[in-house]
Amino acid sequence: MDNSEIAALLNNIGDMLEIIGESSFRVGAYRRAANVISALPRDINDIRGDKQGLTSIQGVGKGIAEKLAQLLDTGKMDYYEELKTKLPGSLVELIHIQGVGPKKAKLFYEELGVESVDDLEKALQEHRVKDLPGMGVKTEDNILRGLELYKKQSGRLLLSQAVPAAEKIINYLQKYSDVTEISTAGSLRRWRETIGDIDILAATNKPRQVADEFCNYPDVVSVLAKGETKCSVLLHNGLQVDLRLMKPAQFGSALQYFTGSKLHNIHLRELAKKRGLKLSEYGLFNLAGNKLLAGADEADIYNELGLDYIEPVLREDKGEIEAAAAGKLPDLIKLSDIKGDLHAHTQASDGQSSLEEMAAFAQKLGYQYLAISDHAQTLKVAHGLDLKRFEEQWRQIAELNRQWEDFTLLTAVELNINSEGKTDFPDEVLARFDIVAASIHTGFTQDKERITYRTITAMANPHIDIICHPTGRILDRRPPYAIDLVQVFAAAKKTGTILELNAFPDRLDLNDDQLRAAKRYGVKFAINTDAHHFGHLANMRYGLHTAQRGWLTSADVINTLPIDSLLKSL
Ligand SMILES: [Zn+2]
Ligand SMILES: [Zn+2]
Questions:
Q1: Residue 37: its pLDDT value, please?
Q2: Is residue 512 part of a domain?
Q3: pLDDT > 80? residue 225
Q4: Centre of ligand 1 from the C-alpha of residue 540, in Å
Q5: Residue 414 in contact with residue 373, Cβ under 8 Å?
Q6: Structural domain includes residue 330
């Protein structure tokens, strides 16, 4: 189990204890431990191997440490298993619904026999909730609204949850079983910003054996369905994974079909019909259905339809089929085009790693440069640096830069744009940084005129090179602030200000459609990870695929430039 899985389990325990009515001290201890572990810069399994062991983790007491040790060693925690027997079904899930706390969850269980979200929905529909002590029609309505919201949001995964989980399973199946080809499918293969289920497709001539191996995958807690064409399992971190099995001769057409999107496929099938052909998950056929034209290889399907191969990231029916027919698909940016990262924090502000650690990892990624862009003085919550501390950092950077021939740390800053569109330092100070970035971290609820004004005013400052995370949205947690992006794109073009595509998996800001719209204005972009730990630098791929979904080429992105041209262009 990895850190995030363990944190989720500890949070789950906290939820259960709350429903049972344990003391808030006890509940808090599990929640704190979960928080600390989810932010740990090291794998908890490694820490377990240290001399001091798990108790060296601040916030993890002796009792929890012992339980975790058992979990890491055996894959099971007796305490957790015991708690599960005290609470029926999926009662814990109820408290994630807005308007339902642990007390209400317990009440619904005891009085109405509610054991799951479905049970609760039924009780609400039958108006059984309003008659309970302390409830009423209004409470019932509130909970119903909370339930709608819960149903809409729940189950959507971030790419950073879905991609690594899928990669692990694919590796496992490739190694151990009789699989000739294997791939992700669905929204995951298209790298949509959030994912429904994890879909995996495998070609094999021995479906029964592969199904067995899949269901025996060590992370599986329950098998929901098992057959020779499809298996569904639940992993211990709560993710559902569907594996479809098919003959190698149909792998390409099945992969095409199950990758979607729905709209892309509808358009493609219409195109096939016009050409007197029939397209399905089983292959591309003549109209009579007795002659197979393509099936084993996905690219053949596109070619037989008179199209260039369309990368999965583009398959949204947003003009890609027309472009493929005209031979005008964009030459999409690749991960290997990226020469460096222009947004990263260190321990000096709110990051967790040192300059040396950040630089070492950037070099491991093959980068030529990394811009260190710690927060500046006005962002007190993030320990923003004043000029004196920046000068000290510049000295350290200059010292470090002397030892490398083909790698450079760039001096940068992430300014905070205040309500007047002003930032932390006067121009003569800004002129001393290699790169100046600015972003909004305060006043998220201001109106559209104000937020747009702040952003555009900052862009008008010739020292400000980049606007970071331009809409401020955080997936599932914070909607974008009100901002008129059309005005922002026009101003970015006019002032030559770069817009960031923030690659942090819960940001992806700008998103795919916004990137494409901005590109039409002639805007240039920087794809940055906003790393707060050296490991975050590896999140570049989430931004990269979002850039591809926005039809960006390497010419649109400034951190594909070698260092000299980069600095000249800013
Ligand atoms: Zn920021
Ligand atoms: Zn940042």
A1: 84
A2: yes
A3: yes
A4: 16
A5: yes
A6: no
